[in-house]
Fold this protein.
Amino acid sequence: MTTMLPPDEASLIRADHLTKLALVYIRQSTLFQVRMNTGSTEDQRGLTDIPKRLGWPEGSIQLIDEDLGVSAKSAGTRSGFRSLLTLMSKGQVGLVVVQNESRVSRHPLDGEQFLDAARRFDVLIFTDGHLFAPHSADLMKLFGVRIKNLLSWYENEDRAQRFRAASHAKARRGFAVRLPQNGYVIATKGKWIKDPDAALREAVDRLSFDKTSARR
């Protein structure tokens, strides 16, 4: 069943690994991505086939998908990630399957926590098409995984900083950087203008007047 792996990786799977759970962790960063980039979500769901091909019985394979639409910047908002770590720390997990390291975390501390749990409790990790055993890996392999975690964090932070800088520059030029409030639309040059629909403008003005009157 492990012919999909090169011999050195296939030999990492022991009988006791196969008696434990195989967890497939999937994640998308935003609800917009979940709605619009359905292909990525389906590709990740398809990872449940990996443990079957590696010899895990279907009843021992669990999909953790609670974190679809949740950023990996912090573990605090990810119930799925916390469940993953809890099961690992109880010694109930033999394998974790993820599409790549960035699905698990974009924060160095969270990534290190995941890797430390895998090392301490002898959990195999399948990611980027390869099987990895943190418990028995040489230092160079562990170093490589940690570098990937740091690069994922750096790329995410760099992208966020560039986005904020671009938004601030746009705002300084008088262009809208957020969706318009009720009664306004974004004009062709990116600025807010009153909605051309007279009935809608009147309804918004009336609602604003009613709120003002209620506060008095």
